């Protein structure tokens, strides 16, 4: 049997990878890593765990249609992993949450290879923990979105997290304010350059891609901006 695992490695802190994820990486013959223009953040997070492994980078350029690349990557993985071997693809956060891995997984279903997914801690889970602010309380509705807000859904939500806010930040904040949400901006959560901002002008001036806005109508610790 050939095995392939999608491993969520968390938001950045090396210690936030799960024990199952760690053991899978240690037991894998091949580690597949999304290629980065500079140093790979995903690669740096797991660097201590994959020493001596065969590492293969796969390119999925941001902002481009990668449907052909997913198919090509699946072919590469299928040709690389031999009988009795294990391969693992690492992904930031959780593999089933706005992840490149999902599209790769779908392509891999076409081959005779066992595919298993190992969940990871998401950036919004980590941000809520960092802020000591619950994502949901009993009776709450939580809304997770990726860069754009649907007003109709937001009106039904008690809390919301918007990922990848750097391109549409001012509009997002205006919508949150109009709907009575208190919000906070978290950049690179759990990483060495993590930053938490509450002031609107400071939030608008920060343009890090790896950022999110977390908001609630009723907060617990009363630290959020209005």
TrEMBL record:
Keywords, comma-separated and alphabetical: Cobalamin biosynthesis, Methyltransferase, S-adenosyl-L-methionine, Transferase
Principal EC category: transferase
EC number: 2.1.1.151
Domain Tetrapyrrole methylase intervals: 4-197
InterPro entries listed in its UniProt record: 4pyrrol_Mease, 4pyrrol_Methylase_sf, 4pyrrole_Mease_sub1, 4pyrrole_Mease_sub2, CobI/CbiL, CobI/CbiL/CobIJ_dom
Pfam family, one: TP_methylase
Catalytic activity: Co-precorrin-2 + S-adenosyl-L-methionine = Co-precorrin-3 + S-adenosyl-L-homocysteine + H(+)
GO molecular-function terms, A-Z: cobalt-factor II C20-methyltransferase activity; precorrin-2 C20-methyltransferase activity
Pathway(s) per entry: Cofactor biosynthesis; adenosylcobalamin biosynthesis
Similarity comment text for this entry: Belongs to the precorrin methyltransferase family.
Complex formation: Homodimer.
Protein name in the entry: Cobalt-precorrin-2 C(20)-methyltransferase
Organism: Clostridium polyendosporum
